[in-house]
Fold:
Amino acid sequence: MRSILDVRARTTWKRGPAADSVGPFLISYTEFTPHTMRDLPAIYFAAERLRDECSELDGAVGVTTYLQLLRRRAGSVSAWEDEAALRRFVALPFHVEIMRKYRSRGSLRAIDWQAERFDLKAAFAEGQQALDEGRGRQR
Structure:
């Protein structure tokens, strides 16, 4: 059952160079929960910068970031043409820098999956459910 804790503020969908792709897609859902609330604003602003960089990469369909303030979480939903495109994003120098800086300050959960079509609302629901069921990666 959803509660007020589950309220999520998110950015608009930012289209990437592959926005007109017809699929299939690789969808990625990430969630970072810092140990302290003090780190959440900086993490969210870093996610916003990554959103900008992500939307310019070949193979990026699009991305949105979100904040669940009452659950002390920030994350993203992104869609890609393939795994190689997502891996290019993960290898970006700024992404590597941010992960090194914040990795020890909280927990990261992430999952990605293949889908024939992309629906943002469904991606949020499927990604959160998968993480809540213990699927995906946790660091």
Notes: The mean pLDDT is 91. Helices lie at 40-54, 83-90, 93-102, 120-132.
